[in-house]
Known about the structure:
Elements: H1 19-26, H2 32-72
Amino acid sequence: MTANTTAIRKRPVNLTMNEALVQQAKAYTSNLSATVESLLAEFVAQQQNEQRQRQQRADACAADWNAVHAAVGSFADEHSTL
């Protein structure tokens, strides 16, 4: 995700988070909202990438199956329901 998040309108949201974890995180960042937003953006980008990869694998599988069907036909072609 390469969008400049500072130019995008932001709004407050409610999150329920582990209080102890939030206190620990505050020791490492002065802007918890920006840190969480950055981590969420990475998560979304990763999920989108994984979804794209799954789709590419499914497309490749369908293309391979279509090539097999074009080369040898369908098993069902040998059997008539009539």
